[in-house]
Amino acid sequence: MFERFHLYFLIGVCAVSTLCLSGCRARAPAEENPSWTPQPTPTATIRPLQLVPTGSTSLSIGKRLRFSVSGGIPPYSFASTSGSVGATGEFQAPYHTDLVTVTVTDSRGAQTQTLVSIVAGSLLLPNDPMFSLQSALSREGDQDIDAPEAWALHQDCRSILVAVLDSGIDTEHPDLAANLWTNPEESYADGVDGDGNGFADDSHGWNFVGDNNDIMDENLHGTHVAGIIGAVGNNGIGVSGVCWRASLAAVKFLDADGVGTSSDAVDAIDYAIGIGAKVINASFGGNTYNQAVKDALDRANSAGILFVSAAGNETSDNDTIAYYPGNYDSPNIVTVAATTETDSLASYSNYGVTQVDLAAPGSNVLSTFPTVATPEMVSRDKTSNYERLNGTSMAAPLVAGAAALVWSFEPALTHLQVRARLLERADPVTALEGKISGARRLNLRKAIYVP
Amino acid sequence: MSHNARTVRKKLARQKVIRTIGLMTATLGMIVAAGILSLQATLQSFLERDLPRPESPGTPAAVTGPAQPLPPRESRLEKVDAGLRPGKFFTAPRTPFFKILNGQPVVSVAETRPDGLGNFTRVTIVKTQLKYPLIRVEDRLRSAPPEGSDEAAEQLLARTAMVADHLMLTPNPQVTEEDLTRLVASLNEEAGSSHYEIRRTNPNSRIFLIAFDGTSPQELEEVRARISATGLAREVEPDYLVHN
């Protein structure tokens, strides 16, 4: 009798406690991005923009003055490098339009700095023949990112190493080869790990799929993404990237089908940290959480790396159905949705007022394709060296390129300040209200400088 | 009425009371359990990763020595005849990247029993051409037979894919590679096999890929629980697939 009573009692208690326990264990880890907090823009060395006639500025402090110039695109030539009160420092710039910091030192050693704009026009258009087809960068109307307006001030991102975590990059592409990062300590294919980072002959990056230094893109995705960030600009060939001159490291961890593993993603992130990348583009993802990836992102944050992540293409709300790596709650992540050519949220784009930080054009984005047709290209019947693709995968590299451009323009910024700059100075777009945090679309010109 | 008869009646009455209390407790327990199950199932239908995720112990139980013996663990998964599902599994990809699994040979299949809402999990091990060929696909499904139809229809709620034959292990800070080597050796000894191995290490991240046979749908969860219980790992987790 008592045995039976105990049996019934135990069945009930065990069922409740087991289910309670399993319920607790089955809970998904909490992934809540803290709401974005705007960082104050540093203004210590930036004085109000002084618009002056092309190539000249007036300076009036101290008794005897010496001029020097920094920023912008060298070389500059000064007509005179010293003078007295009221002297006019004449200098010429290699580009029609540029923005430089002029430092004036008086006889007592006191310095003052003035940001000087040399304005010959408000746009700088590259001579790349397909540029007119790159509607994400520039088009009639106000639905683009104002790239020519930005280029009027700055075009060179070479000082900022951008790691493209993807399917590799076509190293033979004429519009990309000159912008590939070259590891200075791995110049020779000699089988020796010159820089001692554990990866022998990683001259332009590493292949974590094959565990070798063959970074050639066997899919198409990585080459397209790389071209959006840094196809050589103004070289009279094909298209222009956000950065005319860039430093792109191919960190290949997606295979010919565009598929990879979390463990290789961890290795790829750590590799990017090791080679000194400042920006990581992550046009990949999935719906599953990995603590190891989160830990790697936190290491990247500690290393001062900005991590730009695509929001995903499932037309879903990332606040409800998590999409990683964009949903990891590391402060260095910018999660990017895609807009159309009419500045609305693209039909395929994921969204989320908490989890998605920014939008950028992602539809009909023209960029580089591998020069040797891959099976994926053939299956899509896209075998040209330049093709259009849709996706948040295309929106993210516009933001990654913008980050590199901003950062190379103002090297003193931290990665979190660059992030804040991109978000704060983006264009408000009504159609994005209630869809993404801040309801803004990238504006490259404003990200670099707002008068 | 005799004294004996009264005693027997009293005894019977007492037994009835005890039986009633026992039954009521069990019934109450079952009602609460069913309620929790229903609530959990509803929540889980919105989550792709619905299988239990073992907690990481705060401190290792034993850094050295063999793995701690565990009581036998009964899997929630039950074997299903893979031959009953020719081609069906891969015809409804939730996202395009799952197309890569189409047409790949199924190694094994297992399912959980449906809950009160008809939700269940199916685990399929597929052999692919990927870097790590054995892929474990976890589908969260709902049985939804069309009205008036005898044929069972299934609604795919969520799908995840991961490497089937290894787990990512992030060791606790004081744990060394030698400790993990000993762990693998003890797992092999216990299983009487040589399937377990450290497949890969990453010195920067301190991630260790612990490999095993992986052809059984039950194995990944069992190995995960087993390693978690040793206290050597800060995290033991599946190596999920990601895509562009």
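The radius of gyration of chain B is 24 Å.
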